[in-house]
Amino acid sequence: MNNDIQEVLFDQDRIHDAAVRLGKQITQDYAGKKPVVLSVLKGAYLWTADLLREVDLYLDLEFINVSSYHGGVSSTNEITLVTDIRSDIQGRDVIILEDIVDTGQSLLFMKELLAKRGASSIKVATLLDKKAGRKVIIDADYVGFDVRNEFVVGYGLDYKELYRNLPYVGILKKEVYTD
Ligand code: PRP
Ligand code: MN
Ligand code: MG
User: Fold this and answer.
1) For the complex shown, is ipTM > 0.90?
2) Is 177 among the domain residues?
């Protein structure tokens, strides 16, 4: 699996540093509050585990599963709500955790859903921000790293559901993907 990687962009140490940095900021910004952290499966599973261990707050952890890539290398316009949350987020401060913001469409979908359900505030903490990929105007509030407009895998991010277990973020060799 490691042989399919052309270049490592962010290794475990750098990701840990980002988790510490953002964890401190979130701890300060939400001092005295009890936010609901909404982790977006599947991609955000490792980022959620690492970032939240650096956050010193009472918080609720919820998981939502939305899908836009449908296994390929480019995001589709169609966002599917695969698994919803069951708790009530009316009047709550929600922090969405994403592995990557690319076109921004998944995030827009979730922000609209949460706003409709009466969240009192909605912020976003993403490990990676691919600003060149945006199709809608939306921004993350906490960003680990900006990333070039290249297809990245690892640390939660998949290609056809594989590579999520790589401990780093890297660029896949061109010959590995065909579409
Ligand atoms: C990926 C990624 C983000 C989203 C970003 O998830 O994990 O959730 O796409 O893309 P966007 O900004 O263009 O909407 P994906 O749909 O591949 O599902 P997954 O997390 O289960 O892999
Ligand atoms: Mn995702
Ligand atoms: Mg995916």
Assistant:
1) yes
2) no
